[in-house]
Amino acid sequence: MTNYAQMERRLTDVLGLSRRPVAIAFRDTPPEGVLPLSGTQPSGCSFWRLAAGGQVFYTVPSDHFNCSVGCYTHNIALPPEREADLTGTLGLMVDIGYIKLDEVPGVPRLPKTPAVTIYAPLSQTPVAPDAVVVAGKPAKLMLLHESAIRAAKSVLPLLGRPTCMAIPAALSGGVASSLGCIGNRVYTGVTDDQFYTVVSGSDLDVIAAELETIVLANARLAEYHQIRRATLTTA
Questions:
Q1: For the segment 160-207, what is each residue's pLDDT rounded down to a tens digit?
Q2: Which of 18, 43, 173, 197 is in Cβ range 3.0-4.6 Å of 67 for a Cys bridge?
Q3: CB 130 within 8 A of CB 25
Q4: Cα dihedral angle (63, 64, 65, 71), rounded to 10 degrees?
Q5: How far is CA 103 from CA 5, 99, 133, in A?
Q6: Tell me: the pLDDT tens digits for 127-139?
Q7: What pLDDT does residue 173 have?
Q8: Which is nearest to 23 in space by CA: 155, 147, 106, 122?
């Protein structure tokens, strides 16, 4: 059984994380002892911010209604009185040139609507996560990608907007990374020098197990390339 507290410490130390990795799990019922979300939030990725800050809670579909795009990626149907929110948001994005409508069908979505979604810092997750969201700097998340490759797990092409589509994309296994989107950056406060890698919960152990080898290999290669640069560079 995975020791998630130890896993969080390992990821934080090895990847130099300034923000706690977030465990996300989809269930039919809430775990015993976990409280529902308190208050409201403007976006689905706002729940990541709360969990990274130490909160453990669960949401139900209606908690996501303020985020029409997040509802789309999480396969949550908006109530009739809120359906215009999605068309209005997409209309704005199209009008200002942010997206083209023909991109929308290609956005990954959860296969079914989650009855309950549990959010927690990885070390405090009350259930095995379906996905783990890691925010970090490129040079460090590179190590996570290389560990997934070494573990023979899927590494999807780099994703863009919306950031939340990286969650359903990662559920098929391996890792999915996103450069983030402006909405996510506003709602979560993630810094400009960071992006996201989402690890499938089922593959977390085997990918993390390869980190030590990859970190040591990168250190050796750094020395190798520094020597080559010094010896092969001419004025």
A1: 899 999 999 999 878 999 999 999 999 999 999 999 999 999 999 999
A2: 43
A3: yes
A4: -150
A5: 39, 7, 24
A6: 999 999 999 999 9
A7: 79
A8: 122
In tens, the pLDDT along 96-154 reads: 888 888 888 889 999 999 999 999 999 999 999 999 999 999 999 999 999 999 999 99
User: What is the distance, to the nearest Å, from the Cα of residue 24 to the centroid of all Cα atoms in its chain?
Assistant: 9
Apex 176 CA angle, 20 and 108, nearest 5? 115
Q: Scanning the structure block, which residue is given the tokens 């379906």?
A: 130
Return the residue matching tokens 């390992």. Answer: 10
Mean pLDDT of 30-51: 97
- The verdict on whether omega for the bond into residue 30 sits within 30 degrees of 0, i.e. cis, is no
DSSP string of the chain, one letter each residue: ---HHHHHHHHHHHHT-SS--EEEEEESSPPTTPPBPPS--SSTTHHHHHHHTT--EEE-GGGGTT-HHHHHHTT-PPPGGGHHHHHHHHHHHHHTTS--GGGGGGS---SS--SEEEEEEGGG-SS--SEEEEEE-HHHHHHHHHHHHHTT--BPPPB-SSGGGHHHHHTTSSEEEE---HHHHHHH---TT-EEEEEEGGGHHHHHHTHHHHHHHHHHHHHHHHHHHHHH---
Report pLDDT for 234.
92
CA-CA-CA-CA torsion sign (177, 182, 186, 190) = positive
